[in-house]
Amino acid sequence: MAVNGIGGAICLLAVAPWLAVSAAAQDAAIDEAVDRYAEQIIEIRHQIHQNPELGNREFETAALVAEHLRELDFDEVSVDVAHTGVVAILRGGLPGDVVAVRADMDALPVTEDTSYPFASTVRTEYLGQQVGVMHACGHDVHTAVQLGVASVLASMRDRIPGTIKFIFQPAEEGPPPGEEGGAALMVQGGVLANPRPSAVFGLHTLASMEVGRLGFKAGPMLAAVDHFKIRVTGQQAHGAYPHLGIDPIVMASQIVTAFQTIRSRNLSPLEPSVVTVGLMQGGTRFNIIPAEVWMEGTVRTYDPGARDTIERRMSEILEGITIAGGGSYALEYDRGSPATINDAELTAQMAPTLERVVGPDNVDIVEPVMGGEDFSFFANEVPGFFFRLGMVRPGTESGGHHTPTFQADDASVPVGIRAMSNLLLDYLVSRQ
C-alpha cells in the first residue's frame, strides 16, 4: 500500500531538495543509533516484562525509566506524575516547535503462559485475590521503544529543531477501583503544559500483525470505553411460590435482551457500537428467588451522539422493565476514555514517514476496532497520531491481547524505535 508515496517524494524534491538530503542524512543517523542501542533496549524490555506492575503501582518500572532518562542527560525528568508517571523534556540544539510522545507502562492481572526465558512469575493481590501479573498487551514493548527513542534522539540532540516531551503513563488499563489515574489524570494535572506540544504521537502493538509492518488510519481507530453497573431489586420468595415474590432474575434477563435492541433499533445500522453485559450475579440457592441481581458491562462507541443515545435508552429500558415487573433499579454509568481519533491533517502528513521507514508494501490501513485506548485524552487536547506496531515473528502466532499466551517478538522493538524517531524528527522539521 502506498500513501502519498512516489508522488509525494517527487513533490518534495521539486519544492525543497535540501529537505530530501536532510531526510536521507537523518535516516542514516537514526539507523546507526538504533543499531547501537538495540541490544541494550531489548534487555530493558526483558527486565520490564519479567517484573510487571499493575496500574498506579508501576514503582520499579518508573524508577527504571527515570534512571535511564537521567543517564541520557535529559533537560528535565519529573517523577510521581499522576501517581507513578514520568515526564521528561529533551531540548534540541536548534530552535523549533514542541512535540510529545507517549508510552504506557502498566501490566494486567493475567498469569503468563509463554515459553519466554524472561516470562513473568510475579503474583500480587488484586481486588482481594492473589493473581498473576503479566504484560499481556505489549506495554513493556511500548515503554522499551520509547526509551530507545529517547536514547536515539538524545544522541543527536544538536540537530533536533525543537523540543520533545516524553510521557511515560501509568494505568492505561484503568486505575484500581476507588482511585484516579491514567491519561485523564495526567491531562488534569497539566502534563501537556509548560511547554505545550502542538502534536502528540503514540503506538500500540498488534497481535495479528507481523514484525516489520506498521498500520494506521485517519479518523477513528479505537472506541470510547464506558462501564456500567446495575442493581435490579425484587422481593425474595420460595422458588415454588413465585407469585409471592418479585423476581429480579426474570427482570434482569429481559433487560439483557432489551439492551441489544438499542444497537439494532435505536442507532443507524452504519454506526458502530457495542453493549455487552459481561457479569450477572444473583441468588444463593436453586429454589430461592433472590432479592437482588447485579449486572456489569461495557459500552463501546465512536460517535458522541451514539454514546448519549445508549446511556439514555439504558435508563429508559431499566425503568420500563422494572416498573412492569414490580421491582426497581439503580444504574451507575461511568464514561471512560473517549474514542481515539487520528487527526486527518496530521495523519496525511506523517503517513509518508512510515512508508519511508519500512517500505510502502509494509504499511497497512487498519480497520477500526471497538477496543479502547486512553491515548485519546491526549489527542483530544492536541492533534494526535496513533499507529500500530507489528509484533509477531513471521511463521509464529501470538495469543490475543489480554491473554496468557500473548507474546511480542523482540524484533518489533527496533522497528518501533526507527518509526517513532523518524516521525518525531520529521514533524519538527516540518514546523520550521
Would you kindly provide a written description of the structure presented here, covering whatever features stand out?
This protein is α+β, with helices and mostly antiparallel strands. It folds into 2 domains: 6-223 and 339-430, 3-Layer(aba) Sandwich (Aminopeptidase), CATH 3.40.630; 224-335, Alpha-Beta Plaits. The chain has 10 helices and 18 strands. The protein has an 8-stranded mixed sheet with strand order 1-2-6-3-7-18-8-17, with helices on both faces. A hairpin with a 2-residue loop joins strand 4 and strand 5. Helix 2 (17-50) packs across helix 4 (139-154). The radius of gyration is 24 Å and the shape is elongated. The two termini are 29 Å apart. Mean pLDDT is 95; it is low at 1-21.
- Indicate the structural class: alpha+beta
Shape: elongated
What is the CATH architecture assignment of the largest domain? 3-Layer(aba) Sandwich
How is the CATH topology of the largest domain named?
Aminopeptidase
Task: Identify the CATH homologous superfamily of the largest domain.
Answer: Zn peptidases
Number of helices: 10
**Percent in helix:** 25-40%
Compute the separation of the termini in Å.
29 Å
Oligomeric organization of the protein chains: single chain
- Give the total of beta strands: 18
Proportion of residues in β-strands: 25-35%
As residue ranges, the low-confidence spans are 1-21
H-E string: HHHEEEEEHEHEEEEEHEEEHEEHEHEH
Strand order, sheet with most strands: 1-2-6-3-7-18-8-17
